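REQUEST FORM: STRUCTURE PREDICTION
Request ID: SP-0412
Submitted by: Lab K.M.
Chain count: 1
Length (residues): 454
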Amino acid sequence: MTRTLQDLNVTFIREALAHGADQELVVLLQEQHPADLAEAIEPLTEEEKRRVFQLLNPEQAADVLVELNDLSREEILEETSAARLAEIAEEMESDEAADLLATLSEATQAEVLRRMGREEMKDLAELLRYREDSAGGIMKRELLAVRGDSTVAEAVAAFQQLSHTEDVEDIHNVFVVDAERHLVGVLPIRRLLLVDAATPIHRVMDPNILKVRTDVDQEEVARLFKKYDLLSIPVVDEGDRLVGRITVEDIVDVITEESGEDLLRMGGVDEDDRIFCLPSRSVRKRLPWLTINLATAMLAASVVAIFQDTISQMVTLAVFMPIVAGMGGNAGTQTLTLITRGIAMGELSLTNARRALIKESIVALANGVAIGVFMGLGTYLWKGDWILGSVLGLALIVNMLVAGVVGTIIPVLLKRFGVDPAVASGIIVTTFTDCFGFFFFLGLASLALRFYNL
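STATUS: Completed
RESULT:
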């Protein structure tokens, strides 16, 4: 059963496992890029994934785990021994190892740490203290730090030793510290090649340091990377002592994670809810939000109930009610998406929120007038009733204006009070547009019925 590198696919893996050709499969697996190997593993059954994973050496297993999706990773880790996990974690960079341990139960986590080397255990225990979405939670402990009185030659030697002993490949800067490890300067690695070997580091370092504390939110760190076009940034504790670094590779992961989480939250879906997770788990994650949506729908229904007599006198109103609510909801979603993105990108804050509100109100009013006039004329041509057309047009104008105002104000206020706008803004804006839309439309229709004796 001779196969080439390109032949590694689900069918071949299953054939190899069925025929007990583990040795041939091991050889082929070792030639794969971790990302390609993860892609080949993910379509397999749980048992097949675990069998293939057991064939990987610790270094390869560490690389593949990082590339796997969350569901496949969980399925594999459930049946992986603490001893094996300790070997894998030791092959990972500290931030990746900390992420791995954070997914384990406390008992398994403690057992894995106990089996690791003393230095690795200390680093990981330190990282696990920080919030997962903070600078401390995403930083690496592996870094190059030297004293200010060291020479360039000593810094180069330290860099070579670090690269050989810890296999660190993405060192961009030398961090300069004092005797108590306070960060006092930074020096790009490339400058070490351009300066005389006997030069003291403190003479060529840059004392103007851009740094973050361990408790800074990862979104703020991502904004700093974007604003200053950084490759890495040092992380310090409350005493301004150097404790780690964050690289652009970490920030790419943060951006991907945050955008995915925001998308899920705006849809009322928990980030732990996966496509192939157990149905019971999805029900537990989704039912609370659906219950909240039901409550807001009942609120909108109660507004409609106020005008039951109006609807009974003019049944045609029921035909146009979904248009008023739907257009308001769509307009609100457009504004909400733009404002939420602006907040996430650091473009919008309380200081410039008024400017954004004015702009979005103008846009909403202009769109409302355009849609309202179009629907008003369309309704007149369809139903031959200019009063109904006017009522519908005015209701659309007012509701789309409300949508623009509320879609701007709500996420800004939520952010001001420490609530993620992506989590709750959607349901609040939809409630406003539904309730106000029905109220304006049916209220105007009631006035028309009264004054024009329809």
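NOTES: The domain at 145-266 is CATH 3.10.580.10 (CBS-domain).
Reviewed by: T.R.
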